[in-house]
Design goal:
The chain is α/β, with parallel strands linked by helices. It has helices at about 40-50, 65-70, 90-95, 120-125, 175-185, 195-200, 220-230, 280-290, 295-300, 315-325, 350-360, 375-380, and strands at about 10-15, 35, 35-40, 55-60, 80-85, 105-110, 135-140, 145-150, 155-160, 165, 170-175, 205-210, 235-255, 255-260, 260-265, 270, 330-340, 365-370, 385-400. Helix content is about 30%, strand content about 30%. The strands form six sheets. A five-stranded mixed beta sheet has the order 5-4-1-6-11, sandwiched between helices. A five-stranded mixed beta sheet has the order 16-13-19-17-18, sandwiched between helices. Strand 14 (about 255-260) and strand 15 form a beta hairpin. The protein is elongated. It starts with 8 loop residues before the first strand and ends with a strand.
């Protein structure tokens, strides 16, 4: 028997449904918000973080391109989006076909509206994979089951021994589950309720592994409400980061300085390769720090002649763009200028306006202060200006 490499596993996430049972007033359920983020975002986060999958295909509705881009912006580089069909079965087949040109050994198929799938469950499913077996995570049925008749009356009690509630991700040898879907398509058998049902249909054994009570499928409106409560009940901590920056420049002969993007007449200018805006240099470092993205010199080396005389607002906008591309929002920036002169107060309003434009945030999120060095040190002697900057940024998701 050929042993396949369990590292060569792909994932198909089914997220093309309309979710009518959850209500449509706020859009399809996979894009509804729980814990401050869309359901599909939580699902993708768990799958990508597991590092199990070589490829992740997300099957979406033809009308949902904007929704998936907005909901999973930071994960778009990690997924392949394909358009689904008129049924779940057709959508899964489309997802499988998207992998055919570079076929994996195995594939897992997961409902996009199961956002609480965890690494332990994924590993259990992975470890159970075999070349001639499908894998189904399931939990034993605990409720008493009743059979009803056409009149809505109880027709008997069903023995729940050996009964299980099926979950996803369900896992398969890729070639076999694709063949099953193709066979069902050819023979026009459209009514399989899950992919393990297709495996059973073609005679592929299905192995049960322990599911998870937490791995719920969001189906009804109240499921969304409960999931939101679960993520917001104190166990969820938002990802708020603070970065600090410090810079200092000495004076050289000149007749103006540029501070916080504002040109101010002065009896000297600041020495530096760009426009020497000491405040914006410190702020750039603070913003970059919230992404662990190095410092201003990493991105704009002073040895590079293209930055000679450059406006420092370029650096600030660049750092802010890094934050935005990661889904972050700047909550507050605070700058303290340390100098004996020039006076900062008369220019504070213009400085705030300039920084508001650079950062794309409101004036009330910007603080600019100034202090002297009480005639002490090089700043007290009027030999230069220093700046301290602090930035607070809120990123998507939460702390583990």
């Amino acid at each position: 028997m050929t042993v396949l490499h369990k590292s060569n596993i792909a994932m198909v996430v089914v997220a093309a449904g309309r979710g009518m049972r959850a209500g449509q007033e706020h859009g399809p359920k996979q894009y509804r918000t729980i814990g401050g983020k869309p359901v599909i975002w939580h699902t993708l986060k768990a799958l990508i973080k597991s590092a199990i999958f070589e490829k992740i295909v997300v099957v979406i509705h033809a009308q949902d391109h904007d929704l998936i881009e907005k909901s999973a912006q930071e994960y778009l580089a990690n997924i392949i989006c394909v358009i689904g069909g008129n049924s779940r079965q057709e959508s899964v087949r489309n997802g499988l076909l998207a992998l055919e040109s570079d076929a994996p050994d195995y594939v897992m198929i997961h409902d996009g509206v199961r956002p609480f799938v965890d690494i332990d469950l994924l590993v259990r499913v992975k470890e159970a994979l075999e070349p001639e077996v499908a894998v189904l995570p399931a939990v034993p049925v605990s409720d008493t089951l009743k059979r009803g008749d056409e009149n809505g009356l109880i027709d008997g009690t069903v023995d729940r021994q050996n009964l299980f509630a099926a979950q996803t991700p369900q896992a398969f040898p890729y070639a076999k589950i694709l063949a099953a879907h193709n066979k069902a398509e050819t023979e026009q058998v459209p009514d399989f309720t899950d992919d393990c049902a297709l495996a059973e249909w073609i005679g592929l054994p299905v192995k049960i592994v322990e599911g998870s009570a937490d791995n719920i499928k969001i189906t009804w409106k109240q499921d969304i409400e409960l999931a939101d409560q679960r993520l917001s009940n104190g166990s969820y901590f938002p990802d708020v980061r603070t970065g600090n920056g410090y810079d200092v420049h000495s004076f050289v002969p000149g007749d103006f300085v540029t501070l916080c993007g504002v040109k101010i007449e002065h009896g000297a200018k600041l020495n530096g390769h760009s426009d020497s805006d000491v405040a914006l240099h410190a702020l750039t470092d603070a913003l970059l720090a919230t992404r662990g993205a190095g410092d201003i010199g990493t991105h704009f080396p002073p040895s590079d002649p293209q930055w000679k005389g450059a406006a420092s607002r370029i650096f600030v906008r660049y750092a802010a763009d890094i934050i935005r591309k990661s889904g972050g929002k700047i909550a507050n920036v605070d700058i303290t200028l340390i100098c004996e002169a020039p006076k900062i107060g008369p220019h504070r309003e213009a400085m705030v306006a300039a920084m508001s434009e650079m950062l794309g945030i409101s004036n009330d999120r910007i603080s600019i202060k100034a202090t002297t060095n009480e005639k002490l040190g090089f700043i007290g002697r009027g030999e230069g200006i220093a700046a301290i900057a602090t930035a607070s940024v809120v990123y998507p998701g939460g702390l583990e």
